Amino acid sequence: MASAKHEPVKIGVLYSTSGVTGLIESSQQSATLFAADEINRAGGVNGREIQLYVRDPGSVAANYAAMAEELIVEQGVRLIVGCYMSSGRKLVIPVVERHNALLFYPTLYEGFEYSRNVFCTGTLPNQTCVPLADYMLENFGSRVFMIGSDYIYPYETNRIMKDFVFERGGETVEETYVPLDAPEEHYRAIAARIAALAPDFVFSTVVGVGVERLYRSFARSGLDPSRTPIASVTTSEAEIAAMGAHLGEGHFASASYFQSIDSPANRACIANYARFMGGDVVTNMCWEAAYFQMHVLANAMRKTNSDNPVALLRAIPGMEYDAPQGRVRIDDENHHTWLHTRIGRTDRTGQFDIVSASPERVRADPFVIAHTPADGASTGPGYGIAAGGWS
Ligand code: ACM
């Protein structure tokens, strides 16, 4: 472990810039480089520069684990940021546990996990699916068609969402899973099936290259988002920019962060990021989590004057940070993050009109003990969202 006063702080960076989820993970990698640049320009970690060890796992789950092992064993890295698909994260966890390293994971996921060696800064189903179920059933109706990519995150998230829909008097009319690299014809057949079943909305946990194929097939089949919208927890500004705003317009997403958040902190962060990138930028929920977790980590290292995982494990729980989405907090116990949750409707420019927002950040409930926003308030002042519910 580096301890010399001016020795750089080594951080491994495991985001794919190629493969099926290369688009969204590239944004997470850029956010990490941007945050590291900000930290280094501000004097690093008590004078120590952050040195990134960047790898591209190519969206292949086993590569994340192999690269984590290489970073730890060959490069002496003890702090790793990264992973998008849950299949990759699940293989990295035993590696960081075995070597007593830490993983910082900035991606929405299904929850039902705790590792002493992992901090999760993306949303959980209690922070996205609960409000989305409330909003969609209230505004569109109770018959839901569920579609996901064929791996663990969509299975688990749809299982949880089905409970929320059922508890609200709704029903899942059909559930289907699509291979990660399925061609567009596959999605066209599903869009035809959706048109035939005429659900009130479609809940999507499709990730990566499939997102564009889904939305294009949807549009080509004549489905109208004003009558049968897609409501997603995985579609972000990144995928919409890639597919073209016309295909995303009118569909919904639930997220902790949208680029359109009209706050001085978000506007300043985007302006700084545009300067760093040298042109126009598109940000998204995964970009934002990848960005703020680097600053949380840097603050914890400054506070402990150490990059030792044992010292950081004591310092990080309970830490707060003024992120572009608003103030976030790392839970005191469960290694997940209290986040501001929002529902957005895509406009014609590919940005989200925020149609609903939690009045306060929502505590992280990885085991979904509370099935409604109001239950979240029951853990004490400031721990859940305000008793008034959603705006
Ligand atoms: C995911 O697989 N956690 C998006």
UniProtKB/TrEMBL annotation:
<dbReference type="InterPro" id="IPR039570">
    <property type="entry name" value="AmiC_PBP1"/>
</dbReference>
<dbReference type="InterPro" id="IPR028082">
    <property type="entry name" value="Peripla_BP_I"/>
</dbReference>
<protein>
    <submittedName>
        <fullName>Amino acid/amide ABC transporter substrate-binding protein (HAAT family)</fullName>
    </submittedName>
</protein>
<dbReference type="Pfam" id="PF13433">
    <property type="entry name" value="Peripla_BP_5"/>
</dbReference>
